[in-house]
Amino acid sequence: MKTIASVTLPHHVHAPRYDRQQLQSRIVHFGFGAFHRAHQALLTDRVLNAQGGDWGICEISLFSGDQLMSQLRAQNHLYTVLEKGADGNQVIIVGAVHECLNAKLDSLAAIIEKFCEPQVAIVSLTITEKGYCIDPATGALDTSNPRIIHDLQTPEEPHSAPGILVEALKRRRERGLTPFTVLSCDNIPDNGHVVKNAVLGMAEKRSPELAGWIKEHVSFPGTMVDRIVPAATDESLVEISQHLGVNDPCAISCEPFIQWVVEDNFVAGRPAWEVAGVQMVNDVLPWEEMKLRMLNGSHSFLAYLGYLSGFAHISDCMQDRAFRHAARTLMLDEQAPTL
């Protein structure tokens, strides 16, 4: 079967310019979804294209995603991102991913051991808010969650993200290995503290001493992410295959705009993401507030008034001079002064 790894691709397709044989699983990522493919993995790929290195990614999925992982393996862990913009499209083959593990295809034990390999420096996550097993009312670990109950009863065979992270950190500590940074990349406010509360909550239930060690030695940087990445459809996959001359079942389309703001607090090193345009900062909160007010607020403004005016899409509103002027006035005169 022909794949993007086995054919000569058209000249307009941007393929990896670095030696993928040098990659190691220095980043282990939970959640090989559409957003991660077109965001964190793509930005890491940009760093590798700019300066090479060994910052490879091992993708992890637990109890779903086995078909996608099988498809990814069949094409040497390469996949396509189609950036669609008003000024044209870019077709990019991402090569930063070089390994993947799935609980169904491999084993849960193999996944946990991957986190314990010495070269692993960052564990990143895009698992949605639900995946952190946090009680939304309190912000603490939800000990009534079935997976958390399971993990507290059988901690060496965890099924939740907090349970796996705590078990992996416990084993690294016992083996004298450097801990890793835990990096939430989910689009939720204060995501660093969300994952920190989940991990420390689980650790406290298992061993207060272990929780103290994690609190002292592990970092949980906050991040702010922004890019529109729709789920793949049959139509989008056909469009991408027309660019490639071959099918890519792992491909994804997205907008050209991309932003990632990251708190620069890593305990075991990181890629030079700033080379790819990532904003490494001391405090992510001002950026979160800017996005919430300027982007989300303006989007809601256009959605509510646009609906009442008979428009079907936000883009339709922005084609209207009155709406465009109103949105600009709102952002510059009302929202920006509050930042």
TrEMBL record:
GO biological process: mannitol metabolic process
Residue stretches making up the Mannitol dehydrogenase C-terminal domain: 283-339
Domain Mannitol dehydrogenase N-terminal per the UniProt entry, residue ranges: 26-274
A Gene Ontology molecular function term of the record: oxidoreductase activity, acting on the CH-OH group of donors, NAD or NADP as acceptor
PROSITE patterns the record matches: MANNITOL_DHGENASE
Entry keyword set: NAD, Oxidoreductase
Keyword Oxidoreductase: yes
UniProt cross-references to InterPro entries, sorted A to Z: 6-PGluconate_DH-like_C_sf, 6PGD_dom2, Mannitol_DH, Mannitol_DH/Oxidoreductase, Mannitol_DH_C, Mannitol_DH_CS, Mannitol_DH_N, NAD(P)-bd_dom_sf
Organism domain of life: Bacteria
Alphabetized PANTHER family for the sequence: MANNITOL DEHYDROGENASE 2-RELATED (PTHR43362:SF1), MANNITOL DEHYDROGENASE DSF1-RELATED (PTHR43362)
Family per record: Belongs to the mannitol dehydrogenase family. UxuB subfamily.
UniProt name for this protein: Fructuronate reductase
Organism in which the protein naturally occurs: Escherichia coli
Lineage: Bacteria, Pseudomonadati, Pseudomonadota, Gammaproteobacteria, Enterobacterales
